[in-house]
Amino acid sequence: MPGIIKRKNERYLLTGATGFLGSHIMAGLLLQGKKVVIAGRSSRDESLRHRIRKLLHWFGIKHLEGMLEFYETDFMKTRMGLGKDEYEHLCSSGLSIIHCASNTSFTATNREKVMTFNVESLSEILSFALKSKTPCFYYISSAYAAGTDHIKCPEAPVNSSRFTNVYEESKAAAEKAVSRRCKEGDLPYIIVRPSIVYGDSVTGRSIRFNALYYPVRFLKHIRDIYLNDLKNNNGAKAAAANIYINDEEVLHLPIRIFISNAGSINLIPVNYFTETFFSIMEKSEPDSFYHITSHNPETLKQLVLYTQRFLNVTGIKVIIGKSGADEMRNPAEELFDHFIKVYRPYLSDKRIFMRDNVDKATGSTLPPDFTYEIFRKCISYAISADWGEKLFV
Fold this sequence. Notes:
With 393 residues, this protein is of the alpha/beta class.
C-alpha cells in the first residue's frame, strides 16, 4: 500500500456537501484556500449550485464560491451520471476524494433505500477513484458501524454481525467495500468514524437538528401542549395526567424514560469533528481507521437535568429497566416514547470507542465536555431557527 501523496495545490472532490458534516468539511477546505469539486444532485426545488450558495452564505464565505466547481452526479449510473468527456476530465484532475454523502435513516422500512445509497452506490465512485488514481479516498463512516457484538470498539475493520439498525449495518458494509476495492487497486484510504455530532460548541450554530435535538424538541412540544391546556382549556388534559404548575411556577411533567442499562451518549461538537478531520488528513497513515468520539460521554440523566432546567419543567425521571407489561403510562409518556423510538438505543449505549489513532493524529486533543452552557447555546439556536425551518431566512 503506497503512502498518501501530499501535493502543494491539493484539490478535492467532495460528496455530501449539502449535508451536515459535508458542508462543514467544504467550508473548512475553502477557508484553507483549497479548491473543491462538488459532486452532488439538485433537489426537486433547487439546483445543486443554489443549495451550496445558501450554505456558503450561512457560513459567511459566499465570496469563496469561485473556488468551487460543480458536477451533477448520480452514483447509481455509469460514469457517475457524467458525460464521457466530463468524466475523463475529472479522472485526469488528480483529485483526492472525500466521500461524505450518506442516507442516515434508521428505520427498517427504509432498508432498501439505505443499503442502495450507502453501499451499492459506492461502486461507481470507487471505480472513479481507481481510474483517477486518487491520492487518497477518505470515507466518512460512523463509530456505530462497529455493531453491537463488542463493548470495546477498536480503530480497526468491523468485526461484528449484529447491529442496532440498518444505518449501522450499511456503514459497516460500506467500510468493507471501500477497504476491499482500495486494496485491490493499491490506493490509500482513510475511514473516519464520528459518533453523534451536534452543533458548534462555541456558537451553538448548526444546520441539522436531529439526534441530540430530537428528544429535547419533543419534550418542548409536549410541554407546550400542556401549558396551552392549562392556559386555555382549564387544564383538563393536564389534570388527568397529574401535570400542573407548582408553587415555583415550574411545570411538573411526570415522564418516565426507561432505558435498558446505565450506558451513555457519545456526543461531539461539529467544530471538533472538523478540526480533528483536518488533523487526520495532515497526519494520517494509509489504510487506517479513526474514531472521532468523546472520551467522556454524557449520561441521559445529565441531559435530562439540562433539559428540565432549559424548559423550566420538573418530574422527568430516567429509570433503568423495562416498564411492566401492564403498567399504566400517561399520555405524555406514551407520546414521548413514540417520538424517540429510533433513538432509544443511543440513549444508553455501552460501547466504548478506542481513540489511539485519533489521539496520535491530534496530539490527544479532546472535545469539550458537554456542559449546560453548550447545551443552552445549541438548543437556543435550534429554536431560533425553528428546528431548521428558518435556517436560511
